[in-house]
Amino acid sequence: MSLTHGPLTHQFFERAKEVLPYGVSSNMRYWDGGGSPVVASARGGYIYDFDGRRYIDYRLAFGPIILGHADPGINQRVAEAIQNGISFASTHELEVRAAERIVALCPSVDMVRLVNSGSEATMHALRLARGYTGRDIILKFEGSYHGAHDQVLWSTAEGDRAQVGERQRPTGSKQSKGLPDVLRSLIQLCPWNDVEVLGDILQERGEQIAGIIIEPILGNSAAIMPRPGFLEFVREQCDQYGIVLIFDEVKTGFRIAPGGAGEYFNIAADLSTFAKALGNGFPVAAIGGKKEIMLNLIWGKVMQAGTYCGNMVAAAAADATLERIQNGEVFPQIEKVGRMLMDGIAEILTRHGLPHFVHGTPGMFGYCLLETRPYDWRDLMEADWDTQAKIMSHMVNNGIMCENGPEPFFLCAAHSEADAAETLEKFEDAIKSVER
Ligand code: PMP
């Protein structure tokens, strides 16, 4: 991806590079084709750089912004809450209120623990699955990302296609130096959406597996949707082998529907992890699940801890954001604008004779340039990502902030139909520039 900075933005990013490795606080934010995105301020569906350039933002912090940047109502509730203190080492009312709302919205969640990030949520969920079952192995699917901790940095969307082995016998591709090789024995990979390979793996070692962690929509791989019956099959197999089913709803939670994927697909996971849209950008996350499993989080059983877990900022942001979602004011707008974009992108690509697929839901969708429909990350890697990078680079240099590669577009309630129309116009310009 190649973003050309204006003079002030360039100057600022040079300063950032002096003290932040590569100018960023997370590897995910670094673009190696040119300047990385830089923000001076943000409001609603827009971000602004240091040269005053406005971008319609579809990265939305990789998903958390569900209402809009700097939503005045949420910010005010947080500001009011912190007048009464911030962190306590004690239970307080707002964390209970936030948990009550999560339980009310998510059909399979009886109880909740608040944590600080998606990675923290999945890390604890895996330990809880292991502690509850007394087994060690975790099954994860290729092309999914579950956070930055050692247990799950295997065969993510950035995986090396040459390292993942045969479809029937997948081997883990390490996503980072520094992952101890011994961890390989604790993780079983599986291609997404493939009931045959999953069934075979479980037949062989289902009784050794503590948990299956799954993104119900492949949010880190262009939002590929599950085939009809796939998630149901995963649920049945977990029941058959006594495996804890963990829905990683860090991206889908409170984004694809008020009750996330649990509601959208009507499937009850045993545990679910939430973050992102839960707090409209404030750092808050949660692990939720069945009471019988969650009650293992106690001294002598399974450890879950964190100094900042459930702090006032996080709890107030979650309480206020979920209240807005419960009021029903968020989804109609996202559905309308997101659908306009999904349909518009498909229509433009068809008109220009580019074979493609658009996948996902209006709140979170991706597209790829490919002749046959992708059902998993292996298929997706066959798409024409070089052309897509040129299209997306043209977009970002013309005021549409989006991602190249398999990270999806995210919508928020502040995006308007006018934003979608402008985006589609720029998308068509980008296609024309690639055709030239
Ligand atoms: N799970 C999923 C599905 C994610 O998409 C992400 C982040 N992109 C994470 C977990 C990790 O969340 P965090 O970055 O808050 O640690």
Q: In words, what does this structure look like?
A:
This protein has helices at residues 7-19, 72-81, 93-105, 118-133, 195-205, 230-241, 260-264, 291-294, 312-326, 331-351, 377-380, 385-396, 417-435; strands spanning 41-43, 46-48, 54-57, 111-115, 137-141, 165-166, 169-170, 187-190, 209-214, 244-248, 271-274, 285-289, 357-361, 364-368, 400-401, 409-410. It has 2 domains: 7-66 and 330-435, Aspartate Aminotransferase, domain 1; 72-326, Type I PLP-dependent aspartate aminotransferase-like (Major domain) (Aspartate Aminotransferase, domain 2), CATH 3.40.640.10. The protein has a 7-stranded mixed beta sheet, sandwiched between helices. A 4-stranded mixed beta sheet has the order 1-2-3-15. It is globular. Helices cover 36% and strands 14% of the residues. The protein has 13 helices and 16 strands. It is of the alpha/beta class and 436 residues long. The structure holds 4'-deoxy-4'-aminopyridoxal-5'-phosphate.
**Cα-atom radius of gyration:** 21 Å
The total beta strand count reads 16
The end-to-end distance, rounded to whole angstroms, is: 19 Å
- Content of β-strand: 5-15%
Report the biggest beta sheet as strand number plus sense, adding barrel if it closes.
7 strands, mixed
CATH top level label of the largest domain = Alpha Beta
The SSE order reads: HEEEHHEHEEEEHEHEHEEHHHEEHHEEH
Helix content: 25-40%
* Main sheet: strand order: 4-12-11-10-9-5-8
Low-confidence stretches: none
Bound molecules: 4'-deoxy-4'-aminopyridoxal-5'-phosphate
